[in-house]
Design goal:
The complex is a heterodimer of chains A (255) and B (306). Chain A is built from 7 helices and 12 strands. Chain A is of the alpha+beta class and 255 residues long. By secondary structure, chain B is mostly helical. Classes of the chains: A alpha+beta (255), B mainly alpha (306).
């Protein structure tokens, strides 16, 4: 058993050791602070390809950048007409779907990443969503996973932007990822893939930390950790504002 | 100016929220309704998660009703005794409503049932009020003294535990007001509203209270029931967004003041026709959503989130 594990481990590690080309990465920021006036953010992702050997001949180097927000299970419900009104009938639990997913590539994704590699590294949006638990008795279970992608694409949370990574001399690359205003807190994983002829030759991963700060942080923490005081505070603030505005308005009219 | 809401986790325009609050606040002051039945769907529409919208709306109604009720206190149009009796029923009802709400949530049909509740109650209440107030308006236009108020001597007056409500000029059993309060409490917890649009007609037609007292008294009861609901939501679902509430209520309290002034200057009958028309419009919009094929058949619900 142990031997088998070691063998498995060795198999996993070997490709990394054999990498002839690897990524040296820079980020314009490795943390995103959500303040009260947070209105989205643009993160510059740039880097270079480090190699000990000359640039290999053959298909050119292509770069794929994928940024994924924290994943959570999502219940997808479908409406059907029952007794003349539209009601939720079937539902499917998608095991894990990222709250945010953006892919930027240096060429059309289908040309630079083979299906098997996509399956292995879960790069494209469809692959990033996991729905193994989809019940077989519901017809068109795939429609439900497609619905997650469609709805979140409409909301600007999922995006694939091809030809937006600039690659110079097969060595330097840069792109920018737009983070929308409606971000969920958490660790965002930025993955960079180098591919040649559809195969991934190198992979690099780093974390972008998205956190609420200041007042946002204070209110959020208080609402979770001291809900009773938070509730009372909300009521007091509400009533004080109501009374204050009422008095101010009356004084204004009397003068 | 965009502002990020810490609990709702969305970014919205602050002036849009101020405007919405102000608009609904005017209606609140005019009609004595909390405005929740308008505000809650409006918040859904601008992209606030429904759970946050419902809970925050309760908090906002507390504030807009508070400034409204102060204005009514000065004009001595609040029946404190009746308000307290209604409130007793309301608190019990709100607690029951939360239990029902959580049960529906576990069935995954909460959206449908909330919408159905809206359509049925708004439809029935709106139609009744519309017909009744149109008749009253026609009579008053014909000139000639309107027939003296017909005091219903039906089942409402045959019940025990009678109590005298001086401000309303009533001597009736406490059972009907408690039942009215209870029903409104249940509905307000399920539908995320103050419940004024149900309570105002119930007080006029069922309890026979004078219209002028009805508005202030219902606001008085709404404050305490929604405060209770806010606390329930804050402690169980963590969905009260204070930043959203403050923005809505800054617009709302100013609107409520303007609304109270407008309401005091308008004849009661016309006020009721307007309120009935408003209720029917909202009802029609929600009914269409149920009847027409939605453009997106699928909807997402995040598990374990809020």
């Amino acid at each position: 058993m142990l031997k088998r594990l070691i063998l498995l481990f060795a198999l996993c590690v070997t490709p990394a050791l054999a990498e002839e080309e690897s990524v040296v990465l820079g980020l314009s920021q490795d943390r995103v602070a959500i303040t009260a006036t947070f209105d989205g953010s643009e993160i510059l992702i740039f880097g270079a390809v480090k190699r000990e050997t000359p640039i290999p001949s053959g298909p050119p180097l292509e770069v794929i950048v994928a940024v994924a927000g924290p994943s959570s299970p999502v219940t997808v419900r479908r409406k059907e007409r029952k007794l003349g009104i539209w009601v939720n009938t079937d539902s499917v639990l998608v095991d894990l779907a990222p709250s945010f997913y953006a892919v930027a590539t240096s060429a059309p994704l289908d040309d630079i990443l083979s299906d098997t590699e996509d399956l292995r590294y879960r790069v494209s949006i469809e692959r990033a969503i996991r729905s193994v638990g989809a019940a077989m008795h519901i017809r068109g279970a795939q429609d439900f996973a497609d619905a997650v992608v469609r709805i979140r694409e409409d909301e600007g949370l999922y995006s694939i932007r091809e030809d937006t990574v600039a690659v110079d001399e097969q060595t330097l690359f840069r792109t920018s990822i737009d983070m929308p205003a409606d971000l969920t807190e958490g660790e965002y994983a930025a993955r960079i893939f180098l591919t040649r002829g559809g195969a991934v030759v190198s992979q690099f991963e780093t974390i972008i930390d998205v956190r609420k700060v200041g007042l946002e942080r204070f209110l959020y923490t208080m609402s979770r950790e001291q809900p009773v005081w938070y509730g009372l505070m909300s009521l007091v603030i509400a009533i004080a504002a109501g009374w204050g505005a009422s008095t101010a308005f009356r004084l204004l009219r009397e003068t | 100016m965009q502002i990020y809401l810490p609990i709702a986790e969305v970014s919205v325009n602050a002036f849009l929220l101020l405007g919405l609050g102000g608009m609904v606040g005017i209606l609140s002051g005019m009609f004595g309704v909390g405005g929740g039945f308008l505000m809650t769907p409006l918040l859904f529409f601008i992209g606030i998660p429904p759970a946050v919208a419902v809970a925050t709306e309760a908090n906002q109604i507390v504030a807009s009703s508070f400034s409204g009720v102060l204005a009514h206190f000065r004009r001595k149009t609040v029946d404190l005794k009746m308000g307290t009796v209604l409130l007793t029923g309301g608190l019990i009802g709100a607690a029951l409503g939360v239990v029902v709400f959580n049960y529906l949530k576990s069935l995954g049909q909460v959206d449908l049932l909330v919408t159905l509740c809206y359509v049925v109650f708004l439809g029935v209440v709106g139609s009744l009020m519309f017909i009744e107030s149109l008749n009253a308006l026609r009579k008053s236009k014909k000139g000639g003294a309107a027939p003296a108020k017909r005091r219903q001597r039906g089942w409402v007056h045959a019940m025990p535990f009678k109590m005298r409500f001086r401000t309303s000029g009533l001597y009736i059993s406490v059972i009907p007001p408690i039942v009215v309060g209870l029903c409104v409490g249940v509905l307000s917890a399920i539908m995320g509203v103050g419940g004024g649009f149900i309570m105002v007609p119930a007080m006029i037609y069922l309890l026979g209270m004078p219209t002028k007292v009805v508005v202030g008294t219902s606001l008085f009861q709404i404050i305490f029931v929604t405060a209770f609901t806010t606390m329930l939501h804050a402690t169980t679902n963590y969905t009260v967004d204070i930043v959203l509430a403050v923005l809505l209520l800054v617009g709302g309290v100013i609107g409520a003041q303007i609304g109270t002034v407008i309401g005091a200057r308008m004849p009661a009958e016309q006020l009721r026709v307007l309120l009935a028309a408003l209720v029917l419009v909202v009802c029609g919009k929600l009914a269409l959503d149920l009847l027409l094929e939605p453009s997106e058949l699928y909807s997402l619900g995040v598990e374990g989130g809020h």
